[in-house]
Specification:
single chain; about 550 residues; seven-stranded mixed beta sheet; binds flavin-adenine dinucleotide
Length: about 550
C-alpha cells in the first residue's frame, strides 16, 4: 500500500511547508556537502539507521531512494521518502539523541554520508545550508509531534498529576509521544493487559517500544530515551551554565557560538519559568506574542546547533569554589571542573498550597502585573494576594483599569510589610478593597478561573466570588540552595553581583584581583549570575536573555586573563 499521502507531515498541506520540510538541494549544495563526507553505494533493503541508534549519520541521496519508517508489529508507518537531492534526518541530528525512525534503502543507488560531528561542522560554517537543514529538521520534528509519531507511549489519565508531569516533560524536551487515556481509549487498557500492568501504576511510559516504566521520574524517562550523553569528567570545561531557562540558554547560545566549550546543567526541563508561559507578548520582535515553549524550544535547538551540550534532569547540587579550580557537583557522578560558571538557576514564585493552582496558571492566575495582564482584566474584579511592595504596586496599577481590586493580606495590616507611600495610595483609592487577615482558600473553574473563595481568619467565614483574575504577589524564592556558602547572597537569598557587592563581602571571599568584579560577576572571579536568580534583576524574559548574553562577554575576558 502506498502510504505516502498518509505519511505526509502536517506542513505538507501547503506546498511551501512541504518544500521547506523536504527541500531538494541544488547540485552546488550537494557538492559542498560531498567535500565534508564520503560517497558510498547502497543496496536494496539496507538499514542505514536503526531505531534507537545513537550517533545517527546524515545522508544525502545522490541516486536511488531511502525511506524513513516507524516499525511496528503490524504495517510499518512511512514517515518520509528521500530521492535524489533530498536528505535524511530530523532534530535528533542536532540534539544527538537516539533515532526515532528506521532509515532503509528502498531503491539502491549512491549516498553521501556525514557523521554527526561532520554535520555540526557543516551547519556551523555554511550559512546557507545551515538555514535549509535546521529549518527542515525542526519542521520534521514538529510534524512527528503533530502525528504522535514517537518512540514513546504514555498511558495515563487526565486526572493524574503524574501523567501531566510526564507529558509535560516530554513536550518540553520536544519529544514526540503517543498519549493513551485510560478513561477514553480501549487501546490503553489492552496495552496495560499485554504488559501485565495495573491501573494504579499510571502513568506508564512505554519507552522505545519495549522498556516499560511504571510511574517513572523525569530522570528515568530521560535515561531511557538517552537524553543525556555520557560526560568526560576529567575535561576542564570553559563554561558551565547552571539552568536552561531564557538566561542560561542565551548564555549557551552566545558562549558556544563564540567557540567556548559549554555545558548546561538543567535540573528539570529546558525553558524555565518562561516555558510555562502560554504567551509572551512583551518580548522584542514578536508583535503577536510567542508561547514560552516555542521561544525556549527554538533557543534550545540554537544552543545545540552551535555545539553546546545540555543535560536535563541533572541539577547542580553544589558549587565548590575553595580549591584551585571551580567544580560543580551533580549528585552521583564526579564533580565537573570549569574555568567559568554562569549561575542562571532562576527563581520559583512562592505558590500558596491551593488545589488546581497550576491548572489556572496563565488562565486566571498570574505572578506578575504588567500592562498585558491589566488589559486582560479591564473592567472586571480582580484579587491581589500579598502584603508586600510588589502586591501594593500591582494593586495600585491594576486599580486604574479593573473595576475593583480585592487585596487579600494574611496579616493584620500593611504597615509592617509595605512602603508608606503605597499604603496611602491604597487607602485613598476607592477601587481597592483591603481585606486583612484574609486568605485565599479555593480556586474554581473549568479550563479558566471562574470563581475564588477566601476566608476571613478572624470570623472564620468563607466567601465565594465570581472573579476571573488572581494575582499571586507573594514573592519568589531564588534557586540558590545549591550555592552553599560559596557566593554572596542578599538578605532574600538572591545572588549579589558587580557594584552591589560590598568591600566586606569581597574581603571575606578573599577577592584576589586588583580589578573590582565585572557587572554580573559574583564575589568569585569568573563566576557570574544572570536572570531571575540575580539580586536586582527585573524578572523579565528580555532581561534574562540580555544578561545571559552579556555575561559571556565577561567570561571571555576572564578566560583571557
Ligand atoms: C507563568 C509565567 C509567565 C510569565 N510571563 C512572562 C511574560 O509574559 N513576559 C516576561 O518578560 N516574563 C514573564 N515571566 C517571567 C520570566 O519567565 C522570567 O523572568 C524568566 O523565565 C527568567 O529566566 P531565568 O532563565 O533567569 O530563570 P528561570 O526561567 O527560572 O529558569 C531557571 C532554570 O534553572 C533551573 N534550575 C534551578 N535550579 C537548578 C540547579 N540547581 N541546577 C540546574 N538547573 C537548575 C530551573 O529548572 C529552570 O529551568 C513569566 C513567568 C511565569 C512563571
Amino acid at each position: 500500500m502506498d502510504t505516502s499521502d498518509r505519511a505526509r507531515p502536517a506542513e505538507a498541506d501547503s506546498v511551501s511547508g512541504r518544500e521547506r520540510a523536504f527541500p531538494a538541494l541544488t547540485e552546488k549544495q550537494v557538492a559542498r556537502i560531498a567535500t565534508r563526507g564520503r560517497r558510498r553505494p547502497t543496496t536494496r533493503g539496507e538499514v542505514l539507521v536503526e531505531v534507537g541508534a545513537r550517533a545517527v549519520p546524515f545522508f544525502v541521496v545522490v541516486t536511488g531512494e531511502i525511506e524513513a519508517v516507524r516499525p511496528s508489529e503490524g504495517a510499518d508507518t512511512l514517515i518520509a521518502r528521500h530521492q535524489s537531492g533530498h536528505f535524511s534526518g530530523e532534530a535528533n541530528m542536532i540534539t544527538g539523541r537516539r533515532a526515532i525512525a528506521r532509515l532503509q534503502v528502498s531503491e539502491p543507488g549512491e549516498v553521501i554520508e556525514l557523521d554527526r560531528e561532520q554535520l555540526l561542522a557543516l551547519i556551523q560554517t555554511d550559512a546557507e545550508l545551515s538555514e535549509i537543514l535546521m529549518r527542515a529538521f525542526i519542521m520534521r520534528r514538529l510534524a512527528l509531534i503533530a502525528r504522535d509519531l514517537g518512540d514513546v507511549v504514555v498511558i495515563g489519565s487526565r486526572h493524574s498529576a503524574g501523567t501531566l508531569r510526564a507529558s509535560e516533560f516530554l513536550t518540553r524536551n520536544g519529544h514526540p509521544f503517543h498519549y493513551l487515556d485510560l478513561d477514553r481509549d480501549r487501546e490503553a487498557q489492552e496495552l496495560l493487559d499485554r504488559f501485565q500492568l495495573d491501573v494504579s501504576e499510571i502513568p506508564v511510559v512505554i519507552c522505545r517500544g519495549n522498556a516499560v516504566l511504571r510511574d517513572p521520574t523525569n530522570a528515568q524517562i530521560a535515561e531511557c530515551l538517552g537524553f543525556n550523553e555520557v560526560l568526560d569528567h576529567t575535561r576542564v570545561l570553559d563554561l558551565v551554565v547552571v539552568g536552561a531557562g531564557p538566561a542560561g540558554l542565551a548564555a549557551a547560545v552566545y558562549g558556544a557560538s563564540e567557540g567556548l566549550d559549554v555545558l548546561v546543567l538543567e535540573s528539570s526541563s529546558p525553558g524555565g519559568q518562561a516555558g510555562s508561559s502560554s504567551k509572551i507578548e512583551n518580548y522584542l520582535g514578536f508583535p503577536t506574542g510567542i508561547s514560552g515553549l516555542e521561544l525556549t524550544g527554538k533557543a534550545y535547538a540554537q544552543a545545540l546547533k552551535f555545539g553546546a551540550r545540555i543535560m536535563v534532569t541533572t541539577g547542580a547540587t553544589r558549587l565548590a569554589c575553595d580549591g584551585q579550580r571551580y567544580t560543580v557537583d551533580i549528585g552521583d557522578g564526579p564533580p565537573i571542573p570549569a574555568r567559568a560558571v554562569i549561575i542562571a538557576s532562576g527563581a520559583e514564585y512562592r505558590k500558596p498550597a491551593l488545589e488546581r493552582l497550576s491548572a489556572f496558571e496563565g488562565a486566571g492566575v498570574y505572578y506578575g502585573a504588567t500592562p498585558m495582564e491589566a488589559r486582560l482584566c479591564a473592567g472586571e474584579d480582580v484579587a491581589v494576594v500579598g502584603g508586600g511592595n510588589s502586591a501594593g504596586q500591582a494593586a495600585v496599577f491594576l486599580a486604574s483599569t479593573a473595576r475593583q481590586v480585592h487585596m487579600l493580606v494574611r496579616g493584620p495590616g500593611l504597615a509592617d510589610t509595605m512602603s508608606r507611600y503605597l499604603i496611602r495610595r491604597i487607602e485613598e483609592n476607592p477601587s481597592i478593597v483591603l481585606r486583612t487577615r484574609t486568605e485565599i482558600v479555593g480556586l474554581e473553574g473549568n479550563t479558566e478561573l471562574e470563581r475564588v473563595r477566601w476566608r476571613d481568619n478572624q470570623t472564620a467565614e468563607t466567601e465565594s466570588r465570581d472573579l476571573r483574575h488572581v494575582f499571586m504577589m507573594t514573592g519568589a524564592n531564588p534557586n540558590t540552595q545549591w550555592l552553599d556558602r560559596c557566593i554572596a547572597l542578599d538578605e532574600k537569598g538572591f545572588v549579589k553581583t558587580g557594584p552591589a557587592l560590598s568591600p566586606e563581602e569581597l574581603a571575606s571571599a578573599k577577592w584576589p584581583l586588583a580589578r573590582p568584579p565585572y557587572l554580573l560577576e559574583t564575589n568569585r572571579p569568573g563566576i557570574f549570575a544572570v536572570g531571575d536568580v540575580r539580586s536586582g534583576n527585573v524578572k523579565r524574559v528580555a532581561s534574562a536573555v540580555g544578561e545571559g548574553s552579556i555575561a559571556v562577554a565577561f567570561v571571555h575576558q576572564v578566560l583571557r586573563q
